[in-house]
Structures are given as structure tokens and as C-alpha cells.
Specification:
- By secondary structure, the chain is of the alpha/beta class.
- It has eleven helices and twelve strands.
- The strands form two sheets. The chain has a six-stranded parallel beta sheet with strand order 2-1-3-4-5-11, with helices on both faces. A six-stranded mixed beta sheet has the order 7-6-8-9-10-12, sandwiched between helices.
- The structure holds beta-D-galactofuranose (GZL).
- It is found in: Cell envelope.
- Residues 1-21 form the signal peptide.
Length: 317
């Protein structure tokens, strides 16, 4: 199927449009259940949603679930009781959402997934999913390492700092990376453990890796924050990050891009947190009962150390 046909298909794909157009003359009310405040990416994502809601005149009810699924489920149930016009959330993990999403559907409140996906088989439980292609992000990271290691004879030992266990970005970034390096048997993931997308988690796990794993050549961290924690551990162990141990991360937040420009990180795959405007646009359409694509993929790129130096002055987050 040609790209044009695919995009046409995506645009015509039916999303669950609410039976009766909701909202009121003074704008719509959105209930937003955020994952938490675990990383620089999340902070930027929250600001984007809040700023876009204000600009769009959306009455935003916002909760921070502190990375706990039960808190997100409680928040969604409170939004249903408050009879908001639309619910949006970034599922902290992929599984365990069908019951509460069915409650929202029964209450005729449309749900928009933003940032992370759910693994529900019933795609009528949400109107659309707006977010990155995490498998592609992992693939980009792996492809860079394959190219960077092309002249290396012998083993390249990789340790992996995984994101939150069960989270779509953690599962998919792992999948994409592993597929990209699979044809190069000298590239081996010798240790892999979750750092829960936090800087402290990345530091603690990297300290353990450094103690129990000889000859680490590369760190693949599922986000900048864990990569920055790994840098602290590597430096404390008397090694030079970016040289003795190369580091590849995902996100491209300011602190990560700064470390990249300083040579402490070697490559960053961008994951765009600025989803607010697209979210408010989708919400307005969904509440008005208009068709929306089932899937909206965010545009993003990747950065080398040189590209980071050029891009840093203009970065928005
Ligand atoms: C990805 C997002 C991830 C970021 C992390 O879209 O869900 O969660 O990569 C964040 O920094 O904690």
C-alpha cells in the first residue's frame, strides 16, 4: 500500500466519535491523568498540555499519578463522576485498563491516549492514540550503534537501562534496538535492568553494572534521565563517559542535549514531549463528534554530538 494510501486510510479510520456532541458554549472540560513527574521529558510534556489547554480555553482538570497505575485509574474514575467532556491520559503501563476504559465508554465520555499506548484488544475504548513510535526510536538507536561499531573487531558489550517495567516506551524501545543489532553478533546486551525512567534509578543500576560486569563498552538508556544518572556512576568509577563507555539515550531534553554537546553522551534519539496543541485539537474534534485518525504519530529526529551543539540554542525543552 502506498504511503499516500496509508495516510488516507489513517485519516479516514474511524475513531470512536461520541454519540452526542459534548462540550458547552464556554468550551470543553478535559480530565488529564498524567503519569508523574519522573523525568525532564515528563515535566516538558505536562507544561505543553497545561499551556495548550489555557491557550485553547479548555478547562483542564489535572492529576499526577506519581507513576502508580492505581492513581491513574482513580483519577479517571473521578473524571467520569465529574462528567468531563473528554478524558486524556498517558498510561504508565500497557496493561490493566479495559475495566476503567469501559466505564468511561458506558458514561459516553471519549478517551484520548497521549504519549503511551495500552494493550487493550478493544480499540473502541479510546478515540485515538497520539504519541511517538517507540519501536522506531529503539531502531534508530541500534542502527547508530551498528554503524559506529562497524570497524570494531571483537565483542561490544552493551548494558541496557530499561524504562518503567511494562511501559510501552520501555517494551518498544527494547524491541526496536534488539532488532536493529540482531545481525551483528558481536553487539551483545550483557546486562539489562529497569531504572524506572529516573536519574536516580539509572545511577543505582549503573553502579551495580559497573561492579558486576567487566568490560562495559556501551550504555543504551531508554531515556536521557537514566543516561545522566549513568554518567554520574561512570565518572564516580573513574571512567570517562562518552569515551571509555559510550552512551546512547532517547528523549533529547535540554540536560541530555547538553551532555551530548559536551561529549558525555554519544547519540540521542528524540522523543517529542510537546503534544499539547495536537491533544487539544484532537479533543475538540472528538467532543464535537468529528472523525479523528485512530493513530497520530509525532514527528521526531535524532542528534549526534555536533548536531546537539547546533540545536541546543533553539531547543524548547
Ligand atoms: C516517552 C515517555 C517516556 C520518556 C521518559 O514518550 O513516555 O516517559 O521517554 C518519560 O523520559 O519518563
Amino acid at each position: 500500500m502506498t504511503a499516500l494510501a496509508v495516510s488516507a486510510l489513517a485519516l479516514s479510520a474511524c475513531g470512536a466519535s461520541s454519540d452526542s456532541a459534548g462540550g458547552s458554549e464556554d468550551g470543553i472540560t478535559m480530565g488529564f491523568a498524567q503519569v508523574g513527574a519522573e523525568s525532564g521529558w515528563r515535566t516538558a510534556n505536562t507544561k505543553s498540555v497545561q499551556d495548550a489547554a489555557e491557550a485553547a480555553g479548555v478547562d483542564l482538570k489535572f492529576t499526577d499519578a506519581q507513576q502508580k497505575q492505581e492513581n491513574q485509574i482513580k483519577a479517571i474514575r473521578s473524571y467520569i463522576q465529574q462528567k468531563v467532556d473528554v478524558i486524556a491520559f498517558s498510561p504508565v503501563v500497557e496493561s490493566g485498563w479495559d475495566t476503567v476504559l469501559k466505564e468511561a465508554k458506558d458514561a459516553n465520555i471519549p478517551v484520548i491516549l497521549t504519549d503511551r499506548a495500552v494493550d487493550s484488544a478493544d480499540t473502541t475504548l479510546y478515540a485515538t492514540f497520539l504519541g511517538s513510535d517507540f519501536v522506531e526510536e529503539g531502531k534508530k538507536a541500534g542502527e547508530w550503534l551498528v554503524e559506529d561499531s562497524a570497524a570494531v573487531d571483537g565483542p561490544v558489550n552493551i548494558v541496557e537501562l530499561q524504562g518503567t517495567t511494562g511501559a510501552a516506551p520501555a517494551l518498544d524501545r527494547k524491541e526496536g534496538f534488539e532488532k536493529a543489532i540482531a545481525a551483528n553478533p558481536n553487539l551483545q546486551i550483557v546486562q539489562s535492568q529497569t531504572g524506572d525512567f529516573t536519574r536516580s534509578g539509572g545511577k543505582q543500576v549503573m553502579e551495580a553494572f559497573l561492579k558486576n560486569t567487566p568490560d562495559i563498552d556501551v550504555v543504551y538508556a531508554h531515556n536521557d534521565d537514566m543516561g545522566l544518572g549513568a554518567i554520574e556512576a561512570i565518572e564516580a568509577a573513574g571512567k570517562v563517559p562518552g569515551k571509555d563507555i559510550k552512551i546512547i539515550t532517547v528523549d533529547a531534553v535540554k540536560d541530555g542535549m547538553t551532555a551530548l554537546s559536551e561529549g558525555k553522551i554519544n547519540y540521542i534519539v528524540e522523543c517529542n514531549p510537546l503534544l499539547g496543541e495536537q491533544l487539544m485539537d484532537l479533543a475538540a474534534k472528538v467532543v464535537a463528534g468529528e472523525e479523528v485518525p485512530e493513530r497520530v504519530v509525532t514527528e521526531e529526529t535524532a542528534f549526534t554530538q555536533e548536531q546537539a551543539k547546533e540545536a541546543l540554542p533553539n531547543r524548547k525543552y
